[in-house]
Amino acid sequence: MTARSGAVAIFTLCVALFGCENKPVFNALDVTGIQGYGNDFRLTDHTGKPRTMEDFRGKAVVIFFGYTQCPDVCPTTLSEMRQVMQLLGSDAQRLQVLFVTVDPARDTPELLSKYVPSFNPTFLGLYGDNAAIEKVTKDFKIIYRVAAGKTAESYTVDHSAASLAFDPQGRLRLFINYGLEADKIAPDIKKLLR
Length: 194
Description:
Layout: H1 3-18, E1 29-30, E2 43-45, E3 50-51, E4 60-66, H2 73-88, E5 95-101, H3 109-115, E6 124-127, H4 130-139, E7 144-147, E8 156-159, E9 163-166, E10 172-176, H5 182-193
Parallel strand pairs: 4-5, 5-6
Antiparallel strand pairs: 1-10, 2-3, 2-6, 4-9, 7-8, 9-10
């Protein structure tokens, strides 16, 4: 056996037994291959265009569920994603950020069209009727519930605070916990784009 064939045999054995292949290490939670999460939707963007995940094939996609009157989690997450876009430089054109409303009663297309692009003009706000929102949140394992306010119009919506990241082939890859900073998210997105 030559030294070269011996090295190849050892490498092959290492990969087979220990999974030594060069897998990327992420800052966010790597959920590659997890079953039971949605990977598609049928919603409308804030410009009135019907959308599905297929529209973004070839780009990494980060999906966040929230509502425009959210006092903290939603604007913080969208601000972090704006910073991610800046850190990505030219790779930013290969990332699509989607904000799916869990408050379709108040989040009209007009309101979404002002709110979501105010963080970055490429970000899209997605909405649907109650049935569509219930379906997409169930498919993507998002929890939300309306919490009564002092008046009928002043309710809040408690909702899951994490974002989901998909690779350019449309596969769910990352669970991004709320509070993970842009300088940790941007390298993860770059790895998805490789």
